Amino acid sequence: MSSKPDALARIRIVLCQTSHPGNIGAAARAMKTMGLRDLRLVRPKKFPHAEADAMASGATDVLAAATVCDSLEEALTGCAFAIGLSARKRELTHELAPARAAAEHAMQRATTQPVALVFGTEMSGLSNDELIRCHQLAMIPANPEYSSLNLAAAVQVMAYELRVAALGEISAENAPFPLASHDDMEGFYRHLEETLTHTGFLDPATPKRLMPRLRRLFTRARLEKEEVNILRGILKSVRRAQNK
Amino acid sequence: MSSKPDALARIRIVLCQTSHPGNIGAAARAMKTMGLRDLRLVRPKKFPHAEADAMASGATDVLAAATVCDSLEEALTGCAFAIGLSARKRELTHELAPARAAAEHAMQRATTQPVALVFGTEMSGLSNDELIRCHQLAMIPANPEYSSLNLAAAVQVMAYELRVAALGEISAENAPFPLASHDDMEGFYRHLEETLTHTGFLDPATPKRLMPRLRRLFTRARLEKEEVNILRGILKSVRRAQNK
Predict the structure, then answer these.
(1) Which chain A residues are within 8 Å of B30, Cβ to Cβ?
(2) How far is A5 from chain B (nearest CA, A)?
(3) Which of A11, A76, B90, B110 could lock B7 by a disulfide, CB 3.0 to 4.6 Å apart?
(4) CATH for A4-172, options being 1.10.1380.10, 3.40.630.30, 3.10.310.10, 3.40.1280.10
(5) Is residue B93 very low, low, confident or very high in pLDDT (cuts 50, 70, 90)?
(6) How far apart are CA A65 and CA A55, in angstroms?
């Protein structure tokens, strides 16, 4: 299995019957900023077009490499899975996933096979005929009073979620430092409990919910190995200070 | 404490010296789709402008209500916390958070106080003079070979992350218990630092990175009010035990 960042190369963005060439250019830019390159255009109204180039800014290479197709079917050739973007709830025949869950799912599949994200027109989204070629629907959670994202803005949000999923979510934050193991954590909790008993904060006769509450807090923080070392260092210093 | 969706009303988007009025309009649209309404413009090149209105689409009300300011300082009036968006790593004087973590942090603070997200110019981002007025930097993880998001696209990504944070996600887990306020946390850190100095674990002459590391850990855990009380109870018991 290849790595997840490589999998971004297996994500295909399909824009169906886009009206404004500026939106195609802006979508290409959005894609490139997030490391996506495979753009397919189903019967665009105007393409190529100077406005598309202008809005693409430094992503004209993505535009130049875009494939123009006669049908969604053609644009999906070779794809294992297609996710349609929808601004509203559609027929219940389709599973409707929030953007984040859909992106995570897409990146998981893309580790082995090409996956398409399919966007409809600016005015009316995907047609029913296009919808039935999608395996899943994804929705970007939006203000119910005004849910109309610009097409390129929707591409940007999905491309961003795909990149975050590819990079490994929370791991972006945690990755540089190894997380504490189960044993590390249990050792820390024993040490903490002993120390709190010594300072008198924990009465073993009436422990109440103290240790479970502290476990809940530290589990949520997902401690790194080095952080457990620091906390145990603190506990040792408490004991030493008490014995002075 | 008010609910998190209400907190979206306490998020302020500040655009500094924007060159293209179309970007201001597109940013207003991005904001409204995610339920944000408070837009402040610091010395925009051209505003109001027909292009801004055109790109705002159904969000011209957000544009009409936007405040034009002479300085970033003026735009931040009444804000408790300002997060600057950066496309690259800047001086190490600022904490640099990934977009998602920054949005979660912002929503937490916005439950009680106004929070600003500050965006620089299209060409060069935030100036150093603007940067020093921000408490934290946030970065949207992007393709290192082409990280240049369109301004409105960056606003869309951040507004989306704010909305997802507001709707709950992780908060589904935390919501039942009120989170500690900024003041609670600062009080805890002061208490922790004093106690560690007393036990001898922290040498004020050579503090190294101890307190920043502990802050990082507890920020990640997003402490509840009651948890801060427990931790401060522990610190008090350490002190009492030492004085016995």
Answers:
(1) 149-150, 153
(2) 10
(3) B110
(4) 3.40.1280.10
(5) low
(6) 16
> Which residue from A141, A51, A142, A31 is spatially nearest to B149, judged by alpha carbons?
A31
Contact flag A142-B153 (C-beta cutoff 8 Å): no
Residue A201 CB neighbour total at 10 angstroms: 18
Q: Which residues of A touch B210 (CB under 8 A)?
A: 230
pLDDT tens across the length of chain A (244 residues): 345 558 999 999 999 999 999 999 999 999 999 999 999 999 999 999 999 999 999 999 999 999 999 999 999 999 888 999 987 766 656 678 899 989 988 998 898 889 999 999 999 999 988 988 888 899 999 999 999 999 999 999 999 999 999 987 444 343 456 777 778 888 999 999 999 999 999 999 998 889 988 988 887 777 888 999 999 999 999 999 887 7
Chain A nearest-CA distance from B7, in A, is: 14
CATH architecture of B4-174: 3-Layer(aba) Sandwich (3.40)
Q: Does B147 touch chain A (CB under 8 A)?
A: yes
Q: How many residue pairs bridge chain A and chain B with CB atoms within 8 Å of each other? A: 151
Cβ–Cβ gap A146/B32 under 8 Å: yes
ipTM: 0.71
> Chain B neighbours among A 177-206 (CB < 8 Å)?
196, 198-201
**CA dist., res. A6 & res. A166, Å (int):** 8
B242·A237 Cβ contact <8 A: no
B146–A26 CB contact, under 8 Å: no
Confirm or reject contact between A158 and chain B (CB < 8 A): no
B140 interfacial to chain A (CB closer than 8 Å): yes
pLDDT beyond 70 at B176: no
DSSP 8-state symbol, B225: H
The angle that helices B182-199 and A225-243 make with each other, rounded to 10 degrees, is 50
Phi, psi of B9 (to 5 degrees): -70, -15
| Distance, CA of B105 to CA of B161 (rounded, Å) | 11
Amino acid (one-letter) located at A108 = Q
Q: Which CATH number is correct for B182-243, 3.20.20.150, 3.40.50.720, 1.10.8.590, 3.40.50.360?
A: 1.10.8.590
* Domain boundary assignment for chain A: 4-172, 182-243
